[in-house]
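#struct-pred

JT: dropping the chains for the assembly here, can someone run the whole complex?
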Amino acid sequence: MSIWKRVLPQPLSQPGHLPLRRMVQYIDHFMSQREMHRGIVGSPKVTIAQNFDNLLFPKDHPGRSKSDTYYCDSRTLLRTHATCHQNEMLSLKKAYWICDTYRRDEIDRTHYPIFHQMDAIYLINKPDEEVIAHMKAFLESFVSYMLKETLGQVEMRWVDAYFPFTYNSLELEIFYRDQWLELLGGGIIHQDIQKRHDIQPGWAFGIGLERLCMLLYNIQDIRLFWSRDDRFIKQFSGEVQLGDSVPKQMPFVPFSRMQPCYKDISFFVDDSGQENPIDAGRFDMNDVHDILRDYEDLEEVKVQDAFYHPKKQKWSLCLRLTFRAWDRTLENEQVMQLINDMKKQMVDQLGLEMR
Ligand code: PHE
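RK: done, full complex below.
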């Protein structure tokens, strides 16, 4: 599976992750002023118990499915969220930790199968209302500290949410470019977890760091964090100045975009009897995404059309591929070569019948 090529000992040390490392310095500063300890986490390969069972995920929770999660074997997987380390951190009482996390996903500007999350816990022996009030104040001041100089006073709202491992769960949204954007989730640590570890009540929260960093620097494409292009990296060279809030950050200036080139590919999916070829059965669209992600100049993959072929009794899928390189215009011939190679991979690795 192609994800294995990408699992590195330290994804955060990749050249393109420079803006993220800067942001982490600001986060460390904020947290240290609140006497939060930074917890150290190990390998991304964790047990299913750590990632799901100990956090009270129901057996049929969609997050557990093979099309969303990278399983290593029958006992282990690549962690899908930083919360899998919460149990190890509880004895620290006030702690945060940052790690690389993995989810199978589509190919577009806002998704990449490796990303980073920060989680935190804050134990205070207080009634529920006060725990929640404390969490809200803490997280609102965190968001304001991070973004207010760059985005101006940020409008925020709390909305009800569900996580298996917290109650009174909430999500914090911010108003950004005419819409509400979900930024982080939190809640009171579930009583069963409190009891199992014999701890005081407290709150926990989690946030995706790439999304936050994209807001801070106006970065439009999450895949730029994997770039080795100087035109990206050079833009984050200024000094990190720690203070009461993160100073206004210079917005990232996207480099000139080349003309996109569109191509369609079609294939049969032998998944007879399924209502919908994408959702279920032996075929998994994310297997196709996993193969196609290896092609750097492929910007987006969209399912264009799906129909049931009555004679063949098979589904036919048509994908619309958008090709665009960051630094050069692609010739039709080059793109055709890529297409042929992709088709070969899809036949060899997934046994698909191309049209
Ligand atoms: N782990 C949750 C997620 O990935 C976020 C979260 C962490 C929510 C801790 C509540 C408490 O979305």
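JT: nice. The CA atoms of residues 292 and 342 lie 7 Å apart. The pocket of phenylalanine is lined by residues 81, 83, 119, 163, 166, 185-187, 204-206 (CB under 6 Å).
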